[in-house]
Amino acid sequence: MTQPVSPPLDSSTDKVPPVRPPAWRGLLIRADVRTLSLLGVLAVLIVIGGITKPDEFLDTRNLQLVLTQASVIGVVTVGMTFVIVSGGIDLSVGAIVALASVWATTVATQEYGFAGILFTAVIVGVGCGLVNGVLIAYGAMVPFIATLAMLASARGLSLQITDGRTQIVTVPSVLDLGERDAYVLGIPPLVMVFAVVTVIGWLVLNRTTFGRRTVAVGGNPEAARLAGIDVRRQRLYLYLLSGLCCGIAAFLLIVLAGSGQNTNGNLYELDAIAAAIIGGTLLTGGRGTITGSVLGVLIFTTITNIFALNNLQSDVQQIAKGAIIVAAVLVQRRTASTT
Amino acid sequence: MTEITSRRGLLFGAAAVSAGALLTGCTSNEPSDSKDEPAGNDQPAADDKPGKQVTIGFAGPQADHGWLNAINDNAKSRAEKYSDVTLEITEGSNDTAQQIGQIETLINKKVDVLVVLPADGKALTQVGLKAMRAGIPVVNLDRIFNTPQAYRCWIGGDNYGMGLNAGHYIGEKLKGKSGARVIELAGLDNLELTKQRTQGFDDALKNYPNIKKVARQAAEFTVESGQAKMAQLLQAQSKFDALWNHDDDQGVGALRAIEQAGRDDFLMVGGAGALSAFQAIKQDDGVLKATVLYPPTMAASAIDLARALGQSKGIGGLAEFEIPSSLTLYSAVVDKTNIDQYMSTGFK
User: Which of residues 296-325 of A touch B (CB under 8 A)?
Assistant: First the structure.
């Protein structure tokens, strides 16, 4: 089963019958087992890829490709993990990515070059996150509803801005960032951004008060409130954070695809949630790891890559993807419960 | 779903049908004069001379794609050209119920002719029937109604022909090259039109035994999916000679992936007729050498047909007195040799 409470490793639970014991160590150990099982799934996939297409799959360029393709959705997933750990959900991430990308690629914004595009993407992302956060934290709206509303209006707004047209980016410095020449030591800049966001996300969730509060709010909001945490403000920050990640992801997508389109970020919300769940984050909140989520993203991207290299058609791909999600979660459940 | 997509085909084209040629005449059987030429040759060419006043109702889906925008623009500007045409245009919608309501409103307003590009052809069949029963002829644009009873005339694009012409173009380019390999970047796979495009492509390639299709991946008609799927295809196929991409919009992403991979060892043919594709073909500094059209000018032609219907005229250049019951546009191949002719039809 999925009781989110860690076993009392140390007996520091004398007084307050509280909330959730701060058994950080226990949590970490568990996370490690989970991480190992995910790494196992990834290893199996790599073996499959290596056997079926040795030349194409086990190739530096392919590694760069997989990581690049994981970057955009990966950054979104880091933000999503925080939200889900806090017991919330953000259904608007794909729409925010779309809105940020089309706003940042409007003709007016392109006149201001690289900085204009980056700034606009991030500001739009944060702005949408702020609206989500205020509605949820201070308007007492259910996250599902508030972000669903944001999904609809952000998609509508991006359609209005573009008129359905593809806004092609003409700023060379932005485009260059996606070219092979920009790789440093063989690492594409997009992948570096993804790595940095991952590391910061991990540090914030595991090593800061902010992270601890996030887990506490997700585990039991009322107890968190009694423990002196400003739950509402915490929630506001979390949706802001998710919006910020969407803004960064939108910029990465602009670099990658060289354009802004109202269809950008299609179904990111489902991909990000699926990756977080595979990574061991509880949909009910209170537990989750950045490492797990990122491994979830990598598993997805690797599957897609192997399918494409073997020229599987989309119907087969979808069926197999569903099966692999179930398998990954089952494997992970089993390993997790044996600890 | 399906309907949503058909608009994706983007291009314009060549005005195959339309233009100038509406003839007047045809209302009477009387031989125009004594000569013994075939009757058709005597028909006066339809010019822009004002005729009977016609009110045309136009209902289309929400323009959430470049091609659909071009459809709306084409319809409006064509209607403005005629002093005898009044266009009643409704707000585009992808909601079936809403579009039915809009068309019913146009029926109640007693417009003379209806032009309908349904968001969902099957779902809107009933309202097409209703209009026809009310004595309002319907010009069905692109996404086809379920039954011919629901429209007087259908005009639309040729998805099978897109694949066929793309295949023949590639076949001719690779003629004489033994063991040639081609790959296909298809559109959204759950659409009928995608299957038709692929079928046409495969059928054309059967004429060239030296060519083998080695890979096919489906994208989603978006730039993002085009980039992602193309990047994978390039990684999977270290060597191939030609690529057919179903859609110029996802082609923006595909070209981006090709550039990022630093590949230029093959020729690429697009589909639809976007301005950006035309520009790339004209510049001729990349892999994109041609595109097959899916012309949004069909909306202008639909207005022409509706006007002719309203004025009880036929089409110039044909012997018949009435406009045909269906017109399938030609998916012309546009490459460097004829690009200038088509440039003005490219949509953004």
Answer: 304-305, 308-311, 313-315
A163 contacts chain B (CB < 8 A): yes
Query: Tens digits of per-residue pLDDT, B184-201?
Result: 999 998 888 999 999 999
CA end-to-end distance (rounded Å), chain B: 23
Radius of gyration of chain B (CA): 21
Comparing CB atoms, the residue among A65, A266, A314 nearest residue B235 is A65
The domain defined by A55-338 folds into ABC transporter involved in vitamin B12 uptake, BtuC (1.10.3470)
pLDDT tens track for B5-61: 444 443 333 333 333 334 333 444 444 444 444 444 455 445 567 888 999 999 988
| Per-residue pLDDT at B172 | 97
Band of the pLDDT at A193, cuts 50, 70, 90?
very high
Residue type, B145: F
Q: State the nearest Cα–Cα gap between A93 and chain B, in angstroms.
A: 16
What's chain A's Rg over C-alpha atoms?
20
Widest Cα–Cα separation across chain A: 64
Closest CA to B160 of B195, B205, B186, B120: B195
Task: Report the amino acid identity of residue A325.
Answer: I
pLDDT of residue B36: 47
CA distance B159 to B194: 8
What span, in angstroms and rounded, lies between the C-alpha atoms of B240 and B75?
Answer: 41
Question: What span, in angstroms and rounded, lies between the C-alpha atoms of A274 and A301?
Answer: 12
Phi, psi of B29 (to 5 degrees): -85, -5
Strand B138-141 vs strand B153-156: parallel, antiparallel, or unpaired? parallel
Domains of chain B with bracketed CATH: 52-151+297-329 (3.40.50.2300), 159-294+336-345 (3.40.50.2300)
pLDDT digit string, tens, across residues A27-37: 555 557 778 88
Complex ipTM > 0.85: no
C-alpha torsion sign, points A169, A174, A177, A179 = positive
Confidence band for B214, pLDDT divided at 50, 70 and 90: very high
Question: Is A65 at the interface with chain B, CB within 8 A?
Answer: yes
SS percent in chain B: helix, strand, coil, step 5: 40, 20, 40
